[in-house]
Write a structure and sequence with these properties.
By secondary structure, the protein is of the alpha/beta class. The protein has two domains: 116 residues, Alpha-Beta Plaits (2-Layer Sandwich); 167 residues, Vaccinia Virus protein VP39 (Rossmann fold), CATH 3.40.50.150. Helix content is 30%, strand content 28%. Strand 5 and strand 6 form a beta hairpin. Helix 8 packs parallel to helix 9. The longest helix is centred in the last third of the chain and has 14 residues. Belongs to the methyltransferase superfamily. PrmA family. Keywords: Cytoplasm, Methyltransferase, Ribonucleoprotein, Ribosomal protein, S-adenosyl-L-methionine, Transferase. It catalyses: L-lysyl-[protein] + 3 S-adenosyl-L-methionine = N(6),N(6),N(6)-trimethyl-L-lysyl-[protein] + 3 S-adenosyl-L-homocysteine + 3 H(+). It comes from Paucilactobacillus oligofermentans DSM 15707 = LMG 22743. This is Ribosomal protein L11 methyltransferase.
């Protein structure tokens, strides 16, 4: 089977939006190469387990690569992808040159394309993301391994938005918490939560491809099971009360999620969210406040923000 590889040459601030555009256009798997990933990992204090210089990587800007199966007529959708990338400026994102390049690849090239880009990476004090084909043993007693297949992943843990949420989970989970993961993508946040000691975890994504990806990654991490996962649009039709809701999605999509999150949290429950580029921070902050949340903490890596907000406890008499 022949695949078509579509690469968008862009800037770091636009990678999440470009990934969404490619995914929404029918791609099977999205790979992000972001020069800022290597910059921030080297400065985090945990570092890259394989030296950054030994891993092929960009020194500036970013590239988002997606693979389209044979049944997608790529020449027809390329102009639409290009138009949507160009329109990102209207949303306050800089796509850079925004050049869209398509080339055919065969199965073997598609399968091996991922492997040269991913090495084990220590993301937080306790969490290390490990590509599933690499044999790796924990280096410290408390180190927990998240095994992923980046070839199917929608977030491998190394992008700042995912890193921020992994850090927030490590800060907030004490053990036994119930959690909903909105826009789960690769399932990395749900897997991490379970490894950190969370109790019942539900994960949802609008895209069935993402749901299937998360299911495969959960199988690679049997110690994280069980995780309930399914296709759903944000929290539409979900009416429950949990301790934590986590969402690593675009800021524009966080806005309609905020009131849903407030409804589905227990009093004292926390809403952890990222995917917030700097110029969208005030929008999300104010939306949280307007819907009754108290912002307890903000996290930042470069131009990306994460927010930890709490649903207040009822006033005591």
């Amino acid at each position: 089977m022949e695949w078509t590889q579509v690469t968008v040459i862009t800037e770091s601030e636009a990678v999440e939006a470009v990934s969404y555009i490619l995914d929404d256009s029918g791609a099977t798997g999205v790979k992000i190469e972001d020069s800022k990933d290597f910059d921030h990992l080297e400065k985090m204090g945990f570092g890259v387990i394989a030296e950054a210089e030994s891993i092929p990587h960009l020194t500036s800007g970013a590239q988002v690569t997606a693979y389209f199966p044979q049944n997608v007529f790529v020449p027809e959708i390329l102009p639409i992808i290009q138009q949507r990338v160009n329109q990102l400026r209207e949303f306050g994102l800089n796509p850079g040159v925004g050049k869209v390049i398509a080339v055919p690849v065969d199965d073997e090239d598609w399968a091996t394309a991922w492997e040269k880009y991913y090495q084990p990476v220590r993301i937080t004090h306790d969490l290390t993301v490990v590509p599933e084909w690499i044999e790796y043993q924990p280096q410290q007693p408390n180190e927990k391994l998240i095994r992923l297949d980046p070839g199917m992943a929608f977030g491998t843990g190394t992008h700042p938005t995912t890193t921020l949420m992994l850090q927030a989970l490590e800060m907030e989970i004490r053990g036994g918490e119930s959690m909903i993961d909105v826009g789960t993508g690769s399932g990395v946040l749900s897997i991490a939560a379970r490894l950190l000691g969370a109790g019942e975890v539900q994960a949802y994504d609008l895209d069935q491809i993402a749901v299937d990806s998360a299911l495969e990654n959960i199988k690679l991490n049997p110690e994280a099971a069980p995780i309930k996962i399914g296709a759903n649009s944000l929290l539409d039709g979900i009416h429950t009360q949990v301790d934590l809701i986590v969402a690593n999605i675009l800021a524009e999509i966080i806005v309609p999620l905020v009131p849903q999150a407030f409804e589905n949290l227990k009093p004292g429950g926390k809403f952890l969210t990222s995917g917030i580029i700097a110029d969208k921070f005030e929008l999300i902050y104010q939306t949280l406040v307007d819907n009754g949340f108290e912002v307890r903490e903000t996290l930042r890596i470069k131009d990306w923000y994460g927010i930890i907000a709490i649903k207040p406890l009822p006033d005591e008499d």
